[in-house]
Amino acid sequence: MQSRSVIIPAAGPFSFEECHWFLDRGYDECLHTILPGTVRKLIPLSTGPVLTDLRKHPAGIEAVILEGKTDAATEAALHAYVADWLAPQHDLQPFYDKLTKVKALAYMPAAYSGLRLIGIPDLFEALAWSIIGQQINLTFAYRLKRRLVERWGEKYMSGGNTYHLFPQPSAIATADPSELRAMQFTGRKTEYLIGVAQQFASGAVSKATLLALPTLEARRKALTDLRGIGIWSANYALMKSLRDETCIPHGDAGLLNALLAHGLITDKSDNTSMEKLYRRFKGWESYLVVYLWRSLAVKA
After folding, report:
1. Rounded distance, CA 286 to CA 235, Å?
2. 133-180: per-residue pLDDT in tens?
3. Where in the sequence is the domain holding 228, given as residue range(s)?
4. Torsion over CA of 42, 45, 50 and 55, rounded to 10 degrees?
5. Distance CA 3, CA 1 (A)
6. Residue that finishes a domain, picked among 213, 240, 267
7. DSSP letter assigned to residue 95
């Protein structure tokens, strides 16, 4: 089959290199493969999964379909998925204007130019990931995710390699709890994952139902009503999957460490200084969080 390319245009500044770096931070990721200058991913679309290489393009991002359908509907769905995942179309200049007005953060537009809020288009995946990562380090969290994905996710073989999709809620909803516990999921995480999956599988919760709610608070409450989803997980899912850029994962250890490192708070309970800072970034709070998280890592 001849490969086909879809170009996803970007608003400046945009850095595919920053996206590539974010997706290649040394963890045992099982849902995409990092190659030089390329991110390879089996992308779930309504028209069927497509194995896709994402690369830098003068206009933004080139998505090359390696395996799967190449009809107009698939190409349109792929364009929409990549735009939702990597947000290349978002103009960051208003955010950068705000950063330059805060002395401690004024270096960021140059240091991290073009970095986007990398999303998780699948809301169930975002919530499951937030549950998996509760009270453990990222290395172990990625190990648990791989076990979950390899056991219950769809697989696709190409060129001697196996590519995975995140499991459907229906697969986790009927999982044997003892099997999850044998994979080192705690009893509570097992209950939370299966419970949330059952809500999605029944249709009681979905990305569409949340987007149909009238306010952010209503969407946040719908998420925190799910057992195992606290305010941090709800805000994380809202910013990563529903792309609400006003959400802040309050209490996040990395966020607090970054605020301290920049001298923006005096201690981790300095809520007054935090709220004052967040007000200066109204409408861009989630991007502020992403750039503060980015500041904690050294780009290789």
Report:
1. 9
2. 999 999 999 999 999 999 999 999 999 999 999 999 999 999 999 999
3. 123-240
4. -70
5. 6
6. 240
7. H
Buried b (16+ CB within 10 A) or exposed e, 103-133: eebeebbeebebbbbebbbbbbbbbbbbbbb
| Residue 67 maps to a domain | yes
- Tokens 């599988």 sit on residue: 201
Residue 249 lies in a domain: no
Which tokens is 241 given? 């999957």
Helix (H, G, I), strand (E, B) or coil at 265: coil
Do 47 and 71 form a contact (C-beta atoms < 8 A)? yes
Phi–psi pair at 228, nearest 5 degrees: 95, -5
Q: Are residues 157 and 231 in the same domain?
A: yes
Which residues are marked as active site?
Answer: 252
| Alpha-carbon distances, residue 103 vs 100, 108, 111, 215, 263 (angstroms) | 7, 10, 14, 34, 10
Write phi, then psi, for 7 (nearest 5 degrees): -100, 125
Within a domain: 65: yes
Q: In 3-state terms, what secondary structure has residue 175?
A: coil
The residue to which tokens 């952010």 are assigned: 216
The 8 Å CB, 24+ separation contacts for 137-141 are 138/27, 139/27, 139/28
Q: Does residue 183 form part of some domain?
A: yes
Q: How many domains does the chain have?
A: 2
128 and 224 housed in the same domain: yes
Domain boundary among 220, 240, 260: 240
Residue 60: exposure state from Cβ atoms within 10 A (0-12, 13-18, ≥19): buried
Prediction pTM value: 0.94
Q: Per-residue pLDDT tens for 229-256?
A: 999 999 999 999 999 999 999 889 999 9
What letter would DSSP give residue 188? H
